[in-house]
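Checked the freezer inventory, then went back to the computational side. Two predictions to log before the end of the day. The first one is the construct we discussed on Monday; recording sequence and tokens without edits.
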Amino acid sequence: MRSNAEFERVLEYFDEDGDGKISAPELRNRVGMMGGELLIREVELAIEELDSDGDGLLSLEDFVKLMEASGEDEKLKDLEEAFEMYNDNEIYGFISPKSLQRMLARLGESKSMVECTAMIGHFDLNGDGLISFDEFRIMMH
């Protein structure tokens, strides 16, 4: 987790007029300078959603929430990519004992089908003998 000092430096970068808060035009300008493109309405909606005191601006506290939410999105994307590596080709959207055994073998770990079935069983919340993405996400936390 980043420290508040890091968030403050980033906030200062976005805060062009130095008032300690980020306005919709400031956010749009800085995102544009970083190669992104946001419509002014998208920026206004994002600020509206995160603005804790209703002044139409993002405070440091609001900005920290935004950055932490972005971090969660990134973690979810990483989890989805990891899940895909173990995904079963025949039963798409699940990790089966067979696909787990295959992936572990690629990683240099030799496990028997019994061991893989037991590993799956440990995190298989609904008892179907497979790991869904939701079960995988719980397992990784």
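The second is the one RB wanted added to the comparison set:
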Amino acid sequence: MTARLLLVGLGNLSHPLTRHRPFALDSLATRLGARLSADKLISGYIAETKIDINDRPFTIAFYKTHAPMNISGPPVHMALRKTARAPSSLIVLHDSIEHKPTALSQKFGGSANGHNGIRSLISALGTKDFHRLRLGIGRPESDVAGYVLSRLPNFERQFWAPDGPGLDLVWEQIQRIAL
């Protein structure tokens, strides 16, 4: 039987080229040959691909919602019901001001740590038990909102690009979670 995973990139599609954009999800979909396309039923973009990880077959769905990050929980819940079904099969990629730029930290369960997108997901799913890959963007000295909505520096875009070293780290974590 083929295992299923749903990879979600939290971000605001209305703010391109900022820290609030799911670059790593787009890059990973590109790397694995999955083409995201609009799906009105789940209010976002979705793609699927089949891949073997250590000789085990997986179907990986990629999803990003049209909804703003802070209210992304309900559409992500709909995408989860359509694809992987179990919250434990959900891997959310999101920005983290608690981690320095280009750092990657994996987490399962726990609180939202002040992240409104994660808070919305926990509320919609009714559980904290899903995987998170926190992509570091660093903490500004002031004006967090202005910082996360500011233009993503070129070195960070290159780091999370399809051929960037950050994407290798993301893929390694996804494989660990999958197995």
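For RB: Helices lie at 23-31, 73-82, 116-125, 144-148, 154-159, 165-178. The mean pLDDT is 94. Let me know if you want it refolded.
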